[in-house]
Design brief:
Elements: H1 8-22, H2 29-36, H3 40-43, H4 50-73, H5 78-95, H6 97-102, H7 109-113, H8 117-129, H9 137-157, H10 168-184
Length: about 190
């Protein structure tokens, strides 16, 4: 029987906190057991293995990001919506770098189908409705936005912009302006 007070949810949340502190790649069942000062075996009634823990953290991060995105998008359209959603990803990554990394984890088809991942795609498509794109251009634009948001955030988190001018916030603002202009003037075939 598992230690009193330990639940899968509590362990996943503690794993997410650990990921933010030491990095997602360092999160294991062993590291989590040390955090709770219990034997690793005590956690196996709640988690199958480290991959199970990592998947749980990824699902939590996707859910948190989707909730923030939905709140930020409420009542917004066009560039305002684009900027709001982009800032959700960037701000979340700055606040929760380990969880943000977890949100990039490749999930099994079953886990992905039951995750908040589809909410992210729907929110991005909602932003794109303000730009009047049709398929397949809308899918291309979803991929473009995801690539730009994740790429910039990853480089920024890694310190890629910390030793040069102008300030990375200025660049971020210019990138969002450029994305807005591109989306308003999406190239035809």
């Amino acid at each position: 029987m598992g230690r009193v007070g330990l639940t899968t949810e509590r362990l996943v949340r503690a794993g997410a906190e650990l990921a933010d502190e030491v990095g997602f790649d360092q999160v294991t069942v062993s590291a989590l057991a040390r955090r709770f000062d219990v034997k690793v075996a005590s956690l196996y009634s709640h988690l199958r293995n480290s991959q199970d823990l990592r998947t749980g953290i990824a699902l939590l991060a996707l859910e948190e990001l989707a909730d923030r995105g939905a709140t930020a998008l409420a009542g917004r359209a066009g560039k305002d919506a684009l900027t709001a959603l982009a800032n959700v990803y960037r701000d979340y990554a700055a606040e929760h770098p380990g969880r943000y990394a977890a949100a990039q984890l490749r999930l099994s088809p079953e886990a992905a189908a039951n995750s908040a991942g589809s909410r992210h795609a729907r929110m991005t498509r909602a932003v794109l409705r303000g730009y009047d794109l049709t398929e397949p251009d809308q899918t291309h634009a979803v991929r473009l936005l995801g690539s730009v948001f994740h790429g910039y955030v990853s480089l920024e988190l890694g310190g890629g912009f910390s030793h040069s001018a102008p300030d990375s916030q200025e660049t971020w603002t210019r990138i969002l302006d450029a994305l807005d202009a591109l989306l308003r003037n999406w190239p035809g075939e």
